Amino acid sequence: MSALRDALRDLSEDVFFDLLESEEAYLLVLDVPGASADSLDLSIEEGRISIEARREKDLADDYDYVEENRSLFLDLEVPLPDDAAESESEAVVERGVLELTLPKRSGVDETTIDVVDGDV
Prior knowledge:
three-stranded antiparallel beta sheet; mainly beta; 7% helix
């Protein structure tokens, strides 16, 4: 998990998040103001979590932008913890807050190898 924690620390100061851990899962809570499930793209591929969020803006028909400074995109990529079970991950966005639950793999992937006596 330290790779994920380190990657999150390197994000811009404009990205607000919490990272929590229990015995069963990791929970990444990320502020995505103005984003909804339809304007979020979240994927896990090759050990990386990719999140793209777009702010939904309603522009009145009578107005044109003179200046637009509110960020439209959040685009980040961070490493998946080594012990996370990506296929069981769940994400919920509500009121501009994304919660990504990354369950930990149950049990330890351990293989016992029988050792035979080569002198026999």
